[in-house]
Amino acid sequence: xxxxxxxxxxxxxxxxxxxxxxxxxxxxxxxxxxxxxxxxxxxxxxxxxxxxxxxxxxxxxxxxxxxxxxxxxxxxxxxxxxxxxxxxxxxxxxxxxxxxxxxxxxxxxxxxxxxxxxxxxxxxxxxx
Length: 128
Fold this sequence. Notes:
With 128 residues, the protein is mainly α.
């Protein structure tokens, strides 16, 4: 098999695993008794966030080197847990750096559900 075909297969498998991780977060959300916003938040994350932050919140490996903040799992705001809710809400609604704000595109409840979703992403221990 050609190296390009192997690379494509590996990339496809990585994307499928990342989407499975997102689905696992949604299932955990439902099991924890969270609101119906969980399903909607998964759809919103996939449609508005995953392109840059990745399906699993770790960002695209090629871009994270240039923009470490794409890796949500290493974010100080996420590690702060519920104490970081306000900051995360502001980042989503108003934007930050190259990230656009979504206050004109999403309802307040959608942003709040998205904050809950992001806070449930698996976190990595990072020393940033």
